[in-house]
Amino acid sequence: MLTPSQTAYVPFVSVENMMRLVLHIGIEKMLTELAAEIESDFARWPLFDKTARVASHSDIGVIELMPTSDGETYGFKYVNGHPSNTKQGLQTVTAFGLLASVATGYPLMLSEMTILTALRTAATSAMAAKWLAPNGASVMAMIGNGAQAEFQALAFKAICGIREVRLYDIDPLATEKCANNLKDQGLAVIRCTSAEEAIMGAQIITTCTADKQYATILSDNMVGTGVHINAVGGDCPGKTELHRDILLRSGIFVEYPPQTRIEGEIQQLDPDHPVTELWQVINGTAEGRSDARQITLFDSVGFAIEDFSALRYVYSRLKGTGLFQNLDMIADPDDPRDLFGMILRAGQA
Ligand SMILES: NC(=O)c1ccc[n+]([C@@H]2O[C@H](COP(=O)([O-])OP(=O)(O)OC[C@H]3O[C@@H](n4cnc5c(N)ncnc54)[C@H](O)[C@@H]3O)[C@@H](O)[C@H]2O)c1
């Protein structure tokens, strides 16, 4: 066989190399840098090509494609959400993604994004809380202690100064796993036996559960004034975590309204219920938290620009690390119109 040319190769970041990159940079530093990258892309939001993600639903899960472009670079992510997967020893969420040059359409990098999604979701959550949470917040309730949980806890420590996390999960083994993973990470970790106990004294409440139904992780009477709710787990039609009455008492902040109205907690509200786009708070055209007593809610569903920022960040940090493999991914005949001849010559070589 002929050896591929240099343009045939696309750098590929495997799971192993992503883990090495996280360890090389340091997880809290990486979360902080990712949050800064996402924030700066939110600040130039109007420039992006935006579309609600393309979702293929089944009774037990969803498979989604999330594309966007800033005119120079294009990115997309493939991601699934299957809450029942963990019963078979599989993950609820897995992902991979690609970055490409708009000028040529050639891919720049292919990457695993299961780990990167956990990092970017946590970085986005903490970045939003930096703008919305009450001043001096130091305690966070973490309800749902699965795959995303430790990433969320560490992002809120690094970016918002959280010092105590109060863990609750319907499965005590998940709480045990999470508490063990966080034990030497500089956080006070409290194991709780109910959601009510977890939110005691918390200024920030993160809900990150997985169940394909209208669930009520928080009911109205559980939530006092002056808190910030970071609602991560409700991200599909028919999959929510908060009682509707909480939404009616909250200032609601979202990523991309056309997507969030279908997938987020606000699918429970009228289609014209007022919401604020987070990017407008960041670029100074909309108000964030109005007063200390307000309940702010980041109705997070995950938007393509966050994945774009994360992919571009990884691409920028790869140089000099060797933490990628070159994939022979793009057919590159010497004469661009002689694709067929390239096959013939390969047979003769
Ligand atoms: N908004 C985003 O950008 C974004 C990104 C990634 C994942 N998600 C969503 O976040 C959720 C969590 O993802 P994950 O990968 O950590 O899933 P996971 O399955 O690993 O963990 C979910 C945990 O929630 C627990 N749980 C389920 N019902 C509960 C309840 N009623 N009370 C308390 N705990 C409960 C489960 O026992 C499990 O430990 C999923 O719904 C996923 O779709 C959202």
TrEMBL record:
Look up the domain of life of the source: Bacteria
Q: Which UniProt keywords apply?
A: Lyase
Gene Ontology molecular function, alphabetical: ornithine cyclodeaminase activity
InterPro entries (alphabetical): NAD(P)-bd_dom_sf, ODC_Mu_crystall, ODC_N
Task: Give the Enzyme Commission number.
Answer: 4.3.1.12
Taxonomy of origin reads:
Bacteria, Pseudomonadati, Pseudomonadota, Alphaproteobacteria, Rhodobacterales
> What name does this protein carry?
Ornithine cyclodeaminase
